[in-house]
Design goal:
13% strand, single chain, two-stranded antiparallel sheet, 6 strands, alpha+beta, 40% helix
């Protein structure tokens, strides 16, 4: 019996009631493939901004330049950036270095021990992991994004948009009641 390699089928339908959904290979241990929408988010001071929502897979790391330009247009400057390792491409590193943006990316090249830089890198990385990843968990559990019940591509996108905006409104109201300034731009 001869085995043939699996053919890649572009735009194959994996769900009859939701024909716009495509499989997204994630490479995680528990779920290699996910189905549904992929969202790219920016976060400033715990407030989330939706940068892109698509049902097709896309590489988030290619959006870093666009995202940093959006951040600059809204807030005026960008000095620090926390992101997953997927964003640490040579092109993104060069782009951010030229603009003097400090990141949590591991240093390349000879290891020159600068404790203050190492500590700042670690703080940014920890903050990104707890606040950004935590907000995704909150969006899924507290705002119903783990089981979206609406049908239709546009309706699902609207559901995600309103869930994220509601989470932002709750976060802003808590900060306001605690007299914590919102979205300080440096």
């Amino acid at each position: 019996m001869q085995h043939h390699p699996a053919k890649e089928l572009k735009n194959r339908i994996v769900s009859l009631p939701r024909p716009y959904v495509r499989p997204i290979v994630r490479g995680k241990e528990t779920k290699r493939v996910e189905f549904g929408m992929k969202t790219h988010m920016l976060q400033v001071d715990g407030i989330c901004f939706i940068d892109a929502m698509e049902f097709r897979a896309f590489n988030e790391s290619t959006r870093l330049k666009i995202s940093s330009l959006k951040h600059r247009s809204i807030f005026g400057s960008l000095h620090q950036l926390g992101a997953d390792r997927i964003y640490a491409t040579n092109a993104n590193r060069k782009y951010l270095t030229v603009r003097k943006v400090f990141t949590c990316f591991p240093k390349k090249g000879p290891k020159i021990n600068k404790p203050e830089e190492s500590k700042l890198r670690s703080l940014i990385s920890n903050q990104r992991a707890t606040v950004m990843e935590g907000s995704f968990g909150t969006h899924k559990t507290a705002y119903g994004l783990n089981k979206i019940k609406v049908k239709g591509e546009k309706r699902e996108m609207i559901h995600v948009f309103f869930a994220v905006m509601m989470a932002n409104a709750v976060k802003m109201s808590k900060k306001k009641s605690e007299n914590i300034p919102l979205l300080q731009a440096a």
